[in-house]
């Protein structure tokens, strides 16, 4: 093994610690799923539209009343949908702050700072019975979403910057792996006999903030990103020390030289603002591809499965829907590492969802998160990442908020809509998304600039830089 390429204990600790933020993100996505009916009943009680006595009377009578299912009341449906979707609103708003937080005090201190949000969110949800559960849970989910919007950008940024070149590809999947493990854990502890019951569900939601406590204890032991220290702060000696901590005793000259060249390129190319990037024709094709990749991830319908799979399996006739949901989580994790009239069709439905999630985690899951960095150079990259993140979270919100209504409208055929959308995204990817493996930025850029008027682009690029300097 070549010097400087070994996986040291410090590097493993740093990657594990960062991935706790990803795990927390995944837990927050999946935790709202299993206890849906229980939480809906508590919402109904708090809103005064449902009671245990009314439900008992309804069950004992021939009158088909909606009182025996709190989740069918329009007020409960609205608050429940908002509980799911507000998470994405928080992430949508904070996705623009990833670069700012990461550059303010560094990647490590940035992750440490935002853990206050995660702990506060966990307390709001864990103590929701002390006031109005529907308000407390929605507030907690909003704050947790705000945390996850920043964390989902900081974690891949930090891991990508500390990973040795030989392992950047493998370690680049750590964020997505952490997310799907978090989803799986939330589904297991959400079982009725664990925490997904009438007594323990606030603790189930409150545990969303637990990884932040562990991460806060471990982050002070993690080295800062050498690239942040060298390129942004100009602290060459501290960058050298960080490299030694991460890679052991070796000659860091090659890595430092790579950072020096990267710093020179970054100094030459001014940062381009989000507005300038949106109106620019120079980067329009790259930006369109980046946004479409993130749209394809969310409008595949995968988060509808993660948010509502228990209800989906119940409607499909699966007798133990929570265990089917855990199966989705298990399949999800494994593959990251590498009609209802007939009862037997419920198992076809279950198998189809397992297969769907499997293929999602091979491609549409992880790829949109890191392809943006490959499509853009240093100047427009931060703005492009912010826009792509906002696009992802906005799409996530739309799915979370509208899926119950789409499901009520389309019934068993709800995923036909997603299949049609995926067909369109597949055609787009085949025709418009270039292969980036093994290519330099210049080679990738050449694909997008082919056939364009170079002089016009150069003039506009200079105008973009001038507007960024202003």
Distance between the termini: 49 Å
Compute the number of helices: 24
Helix content: over 70%
Summarize the biggest pleated sheet. Answer: none
* Radius of gyration using CA atoms only: 24 Å
Structural class, from secondary structure content? mainly alpha
Shape: globular
Number of DSSP strands? 0
Low-confidence stretches: 61-67
Strand content: under 5%
Q: How confident overall, as mean pLDDT?
A: 78
Instruction: Give the helices and strands as they follow along the chain.
Output: HHHHHHHHHHHHHHHHHHHHHHHH
Descriptive account of the structure:
- This protein has 470 residues and is mainly alpha-helical.
- Helices cover 73% and strands 0% of the residues.
- The radius of gyration is 24 Å and the shape is globular.
Fold blueprint:
Blueprint: H1 9-30, H2 36-47, H3 52-60, H4 74-94, H5 98-104, H6 107-126, H7 133-162, H8 168-171, H9 174-189, H10 201-206, H11 210-218, H12 226-232, H13 236-247, H14 253-268, H15 274-279, H16 284-298, H17 302-315, H18 321-337, H19 345-362, H20 367-375, H21 381-410, H22 414-432, H23 441-449, H24 454-469
């Amino acid at each position: 093994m070549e010097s400087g390429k070994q996986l040291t204990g410090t590097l493993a600790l740093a990657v594990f610690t960062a991935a706790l933020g990803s795990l927390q993100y995944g837990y927050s996505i999946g935790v709202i799923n299993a206890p849906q009916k229980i939480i809906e009943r508590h919402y109904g009680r708090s809103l005064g539209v449902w009671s245990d006595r009314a439900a008992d009377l309804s069950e004992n009578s021939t009158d088909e009343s909606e009182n025996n299912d709190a989740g069918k009341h329009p007020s409960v449906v609205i608050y429940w949908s908002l509980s799911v979707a507000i998470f994405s609103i928080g992430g949508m708003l904070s996705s623009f702050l990833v670069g700012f937080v990461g550059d303010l005090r560094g990647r490590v201190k940035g992750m440490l700072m935002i853990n206050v949000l995660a702990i506060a969110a966990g307390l709001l949800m864990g103590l929701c019975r002390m006031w109005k559960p529907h308000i407390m849970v929605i507030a907690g989910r909003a704050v947790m979403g705000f945390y996850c919007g920043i964390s989902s950008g900081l974690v891949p940024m930090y891991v990508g910057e500390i990973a040795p070149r030989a392992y950047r590809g493998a370690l680049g999947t750590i964020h997505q792996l952490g997310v799907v493990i978090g989803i799986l854990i939330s589904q297991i502890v959400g079982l009725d006999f664990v925490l997904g019951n009438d007594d323990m569900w606030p603790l189930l939601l409150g545990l969303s903030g637990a990884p932040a406590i562990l991460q806060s204890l471990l982050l002070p032991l993690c080295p800062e990103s050498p690239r942040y220290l060298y390129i942004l702060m100009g602290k060459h000696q501290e960058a050298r020390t960080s490299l030694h901590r991460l890679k052991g005793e070796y000659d860091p000259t090659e890595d430092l030289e790579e950072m020096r060249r990267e710093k020179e390129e970054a100094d030459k190319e001014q940062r381009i603002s989000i507005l300038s990037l949106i109106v620019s024709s120079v980067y329009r094709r790259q930006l369109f591809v980046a946004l479409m990749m993130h749209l394809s991830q969310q409008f595949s319908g995968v988060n509808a499965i993660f948010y509502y799979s228990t209800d989906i399996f119940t409607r499909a006739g699966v007798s133990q829907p929570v265990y089917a949901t855990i199966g989705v989580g298990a399949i999800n994790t494994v593959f990251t590492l590498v009609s209802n009239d007939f009862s037997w069709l419920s198992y076809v439905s279950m198998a189809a969802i397992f297969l769907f999630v499997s293929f999602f985690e091979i491609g549409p899951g992880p790829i949109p998160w890191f392809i943006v960095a490959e499509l853009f150079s240093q100047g427009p990259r931060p703005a492009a990442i912010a826009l792509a993140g906002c696009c992802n979270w906005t799409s996530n919100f739309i799915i979370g908020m509208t899926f119950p209504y789409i499901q009520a409208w389309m019934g068993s055929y709800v995923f036909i809509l997603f299949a049609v959308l995926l067909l369109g995204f597949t055609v787009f990817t085949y025709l418009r998304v270039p292969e980036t493996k093994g290519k330099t930025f210049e080679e990738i850029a050449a694909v997008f600039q082919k056939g364009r008027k170079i002089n016009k682009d150069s003039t506009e690029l200079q105008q973009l830089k001038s507007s960024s300097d202003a």
